Every structure is written in structure tokens, then in C-alpha cells.
Amino acid sequence: MANNSDQSVVRLALLLGLFSTLGPFTIDMYLPAFPEIVEQFDSTASLVQFSLTACLLGLGVGQLVMGSLSDVYGRRNPLLISMAFYVASSLACAFSPNIGLLIAFRFVQGFAASAGIVISRAIARDLYSGNELTKFFSLLVLVGNLGPLAAPVAGSGMLSLTSWIGVFIALALLGTYLFSMTKWRLRETLPTAKRGPINFAFQLRSYGLLLKDRQFLGYMLAQGIMIAGVFAYVSGTPFIYQNIYGVSPTVFALLFGSNGISLIIGSQIVGRMAHRVSEQAFLLFGLGLALLASVAVLVVATVHGPLFSLVIPLFFFVAAIGITSTAAFPLAMEGQAHMAGSAAALLGVVPFLLGAVVAPLVGIAGEDTAVPLGLIILASSTTAMLAYFLLGRSGQGSTSNATADT
């Protein structure tokens, strides 16, 4: 792959990026419909937010399962099966008769969508390493981050034409397209000789070895805790922007989508400067930027500052996520060639599991305050910084025995 033309690299990044966008579209596209769903099911904000929690749990647990299966059965077949389940579960969400079934089907939908996230990253590690992996991953993130930018705008547009049901039908159509792309455009990147044994104990051992790797654990937690903070933002801003500041669903979608731009900016800075600035330096800078931005958000939320004073620090907080996630991924994946699927799964599962915990907490004080959002993202920034210094940075210059054993 290293000798392929730049054009073929971009085409591959576009293809894998499409699978990465499935997660953001599954999470974000129905966000502008939260108030409508509350009204239709005669439910509460926290219960509708729990449908997001269920999806995040599915995305997290699914990555553990699909990452391991892709190390055993290759990348294509697990992806094909998952896309078929995604289509079916999206249609089930669309026609759910009550909030309970919607929550259940959102878990299945998230589980199926997880394959697109974890397997696309495993394919990247199959093909690249070192600075080349950083550069390619930044391209993958560039395409994948178009999801958070486009999903709420697309959802808002759908809501102007139809109800929230149409949003899930559109997701089913997206899943159908990705199934076709998997079938006809994606080649297998994991040769049979490099696959793991069909052994459940082996898969558990792989995860055990990775979790004993102090440096991998540090990078995984630093990245995962930071992204969990974003899920607090994702869950809270539909109510904060629309209920507290009174913006329309269209304006909310534009404000929310603008942070997709900040994600892209952050990730592309890392990719463009990978040969001049180390991933370690970028990771530390991103963590520091997130900490400063989260302090500003908490202050604005406490004094109920104007909308622009909240939007600006949130923009920089999300940009910091683009920086930290792009820098942490290649650092964590280096040396994990024989367990790329399992390693990518762990890197993916932590943000979603933590996000599933924090998403409902944003609304715990009601729909008329943004203070819980400020507290949660400040806590995530601080904890991620501690994980980096206590685990990731302390492991520099040493090779984990656990990884070496593989």
C-alpha cells in the first residue's frame, strides 16, 4: 500500500471514512427531533436521552465483539453481516410504538453500526504504521468528521419535510448503501495466515494483554475520557440551545454542525504536521486546550452568559477532541499489528461506554441549566490529563511485556 498513488490512498480513505460516519449519523441525526419525540411518546427529556445512551452502549459493546471477530474471520464478512442488521434495526426504530422499544432497537442499531467504526480502523492498521498511519488516520478522521457536521443538518432538513420516523428510514437507506459498498468495493486486508484462532479464550487473552500494557492503557483512557465529554455535549446541547436559548431546530443544527468543522480542523492540523511535530506533543497540547475550554464553559453556564460566549469555548473544546483523538490513536496502535482489531475495539469501546454513562447526566438538573454540561466536560478534561501523565507518558521509551509477548 505504501507505493500506491496518492489518489488511491484518498479513495480508500473516502471509502473507510464512509463507514466511520455511520456512528456519527446514528448518534446525531435524530438529535433535533428530541423535543418532538418527548411530545409524541409523552415522555421526559432524560428518558429520550436514554435512547442515546442505549445507542452508545450498543456502539461500545459492539466494537468489542466486532473487533475480535474481525481478527478471526477477516474484515469483510463481519462488516457485511453488521450492515444487514443495521438496516433492519433502523427500520425497527422508525416504527417503534413506544419509547421502550425505541430504546431497545437503538441498542441494536448502535451494536450494528459499531462494525463500521472498529473495522475501518483495523483496516487502516492492516495497511499502515508509524507516521504513515498518522497521516492516513487524519484523512479517515477528516471524512468521518463530516458526519457530525452533516448529520444534525440533515436531520433538521428531514424534520422540515417529515417526522422523526423519516430520519430512521433515511438511516436504513444509508445502511443499504454501505452494505453495497462492502460487497462490491471493499477488498479483504487481513490474510488468513495472519488471523487469530477461533477461540473465545484467545480473544479474552488478547484483551487482557492489551489492558496490561500500561502505555496502551494510558492512551486509550486519555482518548476515551475526552470523547466521552463530547457525548455530554451531544446529549445536552439540543435542550440547552433550543430550550434555554430559544434557537430553532435549523439554527441548532448549524451551531452543532459548526463543531464538526472544529473536529476537522483539529484532526487535520495533526495529520499535516505529523513529520514535524510529535504525536506526544499534539496530545499534550490538545489535553491542555480542552481543560481551558471546559473551564470557560462552566463559567459561562454558571452566570448564564449569552449564547456566543458558550458556543466559542465549546468550539475549541471539540477542536481539542480532534487533536487528541488523532494523536492518541497511532500512539496506542503502534506495536499492536497482531491484535489490530482488538486494539481498535478497546480504543472505540471506552468512549462509548463512558459516553453512555454521562449522556443522561447532562439533563439530571432539568432542561433549564447548562451547569451539568460544564461540570462533566471539566471532569473529563481533568481525568484525561491525569491518565496521560500517570499511564501513557510514564510508559514512554519502554515496550510493554504484554505486547512483546504477542
Automatic annotation (TrEMBL):
GO cellular component, one term: plasma membrane
Chief place of localization: membrane
Transmembrane segments: 12-34, 46-66, 78-97, 103-124, 136-155, 161-179, 216-241, 247-270, 282-301, 307-331, 343-364, 370-391
SUPFAM superfamilies: MFS general substrate transporter
CDD domains to which the protein is assigned, alphabetical: MFS_MdfA_MDR_like
Residues in Major facilitator superfamily (MFS) profile domain copies: 9-396
UniProt xrefs under PROSITE patterns: MFS
UniProt subcellular location: Cell membrane
A GO term for molecular function: xenobiotic transmembrane transporter activity
Listed Gene3D superfamilies: Multidrug resistance protein D (1.20.1720.10)
One GO term of the biological process aspect: xenobiotic detoxification by transmembrane export across the plasma membrane
InterPro entries, per database record: Efflux_drug-R_Bcr/CmlA, MFS, MFS_dom, MFS_trans_sf
Topology of the protein relative to the lipid bilayer: Multi-pass membrane protein
Keywords: Cell membrane, Membrane, Transmembrane, Transmembrane helix, Transport
Family (UniProt): Belongs to the major facilitator superfamily. Bcr/CmlA family.
Protein name (record): Bcr/CflA family efflux transporter
Organism per entry: Paenibacillus montanisoli
Organism ancestry: Bacteria, Bacillati, Bacillota, Bacilli, Bacillales
